[in-house]
Structure formats: structure tokens, C-alpha cells
Amino acid sequence: MMLRIALSALAAACVLAAPLPAHADDPAPEPGSALDAEGLSLGWELRPTGVTARLRGLSPVSRDVAWASGSEGAVLRTADGGRTWERVSPPGTETLQFRDVEAFDARRAVVLSIGEGGDSRVYRTDDAGRTWTETFRNDEPKAFYDCMAFFDARHGLAMSDPVDGRFRILATEDGGRSWQVLPPAGMPEALPGEAGFAASGQCLVTAGGRDAWLASGGAERSRVFHSADRGRTWTVADTPIPAGDPARGVFALAFRDRRQGLAVGGDYRTGQPSPAAGALSDDGGATWRGAATPPPAYRSGVTWVPHLPFAAIAVGPSGSDVTLTGGRTWRTFDTGSFDTVSCTPDLSCWASGENGRVARLALRRP
Asked: Which residue intervals make up region (Disordered) (predicted)?
């Protein structure tokens, strides 16, 4: 009964905030959508992009505007809710993998490419992708940048896998136009084999003006690091998400505020079990406990649904799940493949992944 009431609230909020009239050019919901919430269908509506790149970076701004990025140097932008997409990649970047994009609005965005050495770069646009400026290129051979996140339109961080035994943090105070490596002394030592996962642009996240969290795996324990001073100093806590192998760990984080957090992950290898793929924290990441009913398999992306305190969505290659209990219990509602997911303040939720797939959450009466 409580699940049905919560689903009804989620459906009503989404329909009121972002109505989905039956346009003739709207695609049908993805196969595998679950019928619930008093007859409403909860599922993803594909928004064809015309590309085959794997889109692990996603930054929707509103119901209409979204940015996506990924392999083959792909950076995409829509201004009409995904009905049409424009490829707006920085020139000469066809071999790069843009695993993260952070958009401030319809015109301004920052993208991060991942890789060893000079393949880790940051570009910024102020004109909707017509022109780009390269604002950072890694010159440290040991560094491999995974994710970035912004506190506001000026202050942000980017994280690299450990260099000389500690995660490396870049900081910007001008919206990504310039970057500085922060001193490593405030970062706890990494475990042997510990690293981040550049799977969804969500291994580094922020909440409020100063708090940041980064996720790790690949070591004997999967951990979450927390900074309360914009990346200058960090603490670290263990999580119950599977560890002990380079393919296992925490892949994505989401914090609703300074205290309420979610972590998802597991073992990314196809066919490998991930029996504890979700965890939650109610003390800002100081401690973590496993979900009572976690997602049934590895998940690479997670997001809170704005304005609904206990609602969140997780995605991965084998499906999408919803929680209406703040991460304590999860329920699968779709079996399509996605890598990352994000919701906007106007209650529009987007997901993206392999083969250029981008979709928007739909709630309709059959």
C-alpha cells in the first residue's frame, strides 16, 4: 500500500511539473516498462540522437535542454526535449572519450575527456557548442581523470585516479576556464589498486556550496571520500558495496543534501552477480549501510528526483530501478540498458548509454 501511494505521488508530481501530451512524433515507451501508480506507465521514452557513440556523460538542464557526451569525441545538445540533437563536439577530438559533461544552461557547458596523459582534457563553451576553449590538458603521466562536478557556476572539482598513492583533485574558481591541482596532503592514502570508475560522470558529486564526495573501487574495500571544504581536505568511509576485484566498487553517488546520500555499483562484468549493489547514508557519508532490497544487478548511475525527498532512480546495463524509500528498497521498472541518469528541477529525468541511447522518463495513462 505504501509503495502504491508513493508511486502515485511520484506520478502526480511528474505529470504536473512536466506534462507529456501525446504528440504524434513522441516515441512509444521502451519495452519492459512497469505498469503501476493507478494505471500509469513508468518507463523511458527514447529520444533518438542519430549517433552510435556510448554516451556516459549526461547533463540535462530542463525539460527541453540537455547535453550528452561520450566516445568518438561525441558532444550532443538538444533544445527541444530531445526531438532533435545537434553534434557540437570540440574540433579535432574524434578519438577522445568525453565521459563527463556539466552544463550550466543552454549555452554554457564544460566537458571532460578521460585517459592517460594528454587524453585527459577539459573544454568549455559559452555559445552552445559553436566554439570551444581547451582549459586543461593533463601533463602528469600517472594521472587519469575520471569525473568532475560543480558546486555552482564558478566553483568545481575534477578527480584523477591516485598519483603517488593519493587521489588527485583539480579545482576551478572561474567556471572551468582555468584549473589548479590541489595539494595532496589533505587526501587520505589510497588502498592498493584503488581507483575511480569513469562510467557515468557520477564518481564525483557535490551538494550545497562546499561538500563533495568521490567514489572508489578496485581495491579490497569500496569506499567513499568526503570533503567539506571544496576539496582541500577529505575523510573516507567504507561501504558494503562489493569490492576485492578491479571490476568491483562504488560507481556512482548522489547526495540530496549534505546528509542524505546514495551509492550504487557492483561488478561491471557481464553475467557477474552484484548482490549488494546499493547503499545509503544519512550522515553525510560518514557511515554507509546496505539497502534492504538493493538493485538486482550492477548499476552505474543514480540520481535523486527533485522535490520528492525519498525518490531516486538508478540505471545500469541490465535495467533501471526506482526507490521511494530513500534507497532502502529498490524496484526494477525497465530492462533497457543505460549508463547514467539525471533529473532537473522541473522534474524531467533523463538517461543515456550505449549506441547513442538517450531517453526521458515518461508517465502516461495507457
From this structure: 264-292
Per the CB < 8 A criterion, the answer to whether 180 and 156 are in contact is no
CATH fold of 2-17+34-364 reads: Methylamine Dehydrogenase; Chain H (2.130.10)
- Is residue 224 a contact partner of residue 212, using CB atoms and an 8 Å limit? no
- 242 pLDDT more than 70: yes
Least confident of 41-45, 320-324, 346-350: 41-45
Residue 120, CB half-sphere, CA atoms under 13 Å: how many?
22
**From the centroid of its chain, how far is CA 325?**
20
- Domain residue extents for the chain: 2-17+34-364
Query: What SS3 class is residue 177?
Result: coil
Amino acid at 79: A
Rounded Cα gap, residues 315 and 301, in angstroms: 5
Q: How far apart are CA 294 and CA 276, in angstroms?
A: 6
Closest CA to 116 of 133, 96, 94: 96
Rounded Cα distance, 62 and 41, in Å: 22
Predicted pLDDT of residue 213:
99
What are 198-208's pLDDT values in tens digits? 999 999 999 99
Between CA 225 and CA 238 the distance in angstroms is: 9
Beta bridge partners of 149: 157
Instruction: Tell me the residue ranges of DSSP E strands in 79-182.
Output: 86-87, 97-103, 109-116, 121-125, 133-137, 144-150, 156-163, 166-172, 180-181
> Which residues share a beta bridge with 224?
215, 237
Residue count of the chain, please give it.
366
